[in-house]
Amino acid sequence: MSANRARSGGTPVARSRFAPDRGLTFRMVLTMVVLAVLYVVLIAAISLATEAWILGILIGLGVLWGQWYFSDKLALSAMGAREVSPEEDPGLHAMVDRLCALADMPKPKVAVAHTDLPNAFAAGRSPKRAVVCVTDGIRRRLDERELEAVMSHELSHVAHRDVLVMTVASVVGVLAGFITRMFLWSGMTRSRGNNNNAALMVLVVMVVAAVVYFVSFLLTRLLSRYRELAADRAGAVLTGQPSALASALTKISGDMARIPAKDLRAAEPYNAFFFVPALTGKLDIASLFASHPPLDKRLAQLDKISVELGRE
């Protein structure tokens, strides 16, 4: 097995032995560039209608910095998880140690969430400041081989740095709504002409904010679906056990329907960061905006990788 070669082009891995993905890198860069442009347009629209646009910029930058710097702590807090030491959970730490040695990457912090929701996620602003978290629910349902495959998937998110991009990208749409509400509710609008001009500027800001929110939502969903496929590929190639990851996916997806609806609803806002999405119902037209690719597509990709590794 050549774990240090990309399936998409054979480029050597510079920072870890996880297979790199040019498609993922391109999508991350494109997403950040587009969102940065949209954010500047929104601030420009607000600046035309109010003299308090500097406040909007400062608030926006402050929120972005907070999401970047405290992303790991915010993610753990949202899931009610806590970091565990090697003494508290030697088995889980030993598994992460093995995978990090295999991938030649810094070991992230390890956390556990005491919930029956079967899932795992990674968070953090860099590989050295990252955290990987598993729930009690996923540990009860998977054997060691399957759980190791899931952890390899999550560690690949850290190595690819897509966790940081998703964190920053997901907050831009929220910022658009927040800044616009602040602009409207505070009564800061000051006409630079007549009342018609003031009403027109309010309408312009609302339209721009709506576009920024929709585009940021769509881009993060598209990036989220691709990054899950990329993590499946990289994690399976690293361990050489795509069948274990396929088995874990099948088990967790099947058991998700047995989780109480209230628990799934509480977890849904964080779907983009989960190994398997917490879903409360069937997907139809909503699948166009799903945070994860369909299960059959993920399994088909893993079957293909199994065949490729078998030939090698």
Automatic annotation (TrEMBL):
Keywords: Cell membrane, Hydrolase, Membrane, Metal-binding, Metalloprotease, Protease, Transmembrane, Transmembrane helix, Zinc. Residues 87-305 form the Peptidase M48 domain. It holds the Pfam family Peptidase_M48. The keyword Protease applies. InterPro entries: HtpX_protease, Pept_M48_protease_HtpX, Peptidase_M48. Binds 1 zinc ion per subunit. It is a multi-pass membrane protein. One of its GO terms (molecular function) is metalloendopeptidase activity. The keyword Transmembrane applies. The active site is at E154. Its cofactor is Zn(2+). Its main location: membrane. The chain crosses the membrane at residues 24-46, 52-70, 163-186, 198-219. GO terms for cellular component: plasma membrane. This is Protease HtpX homolog.
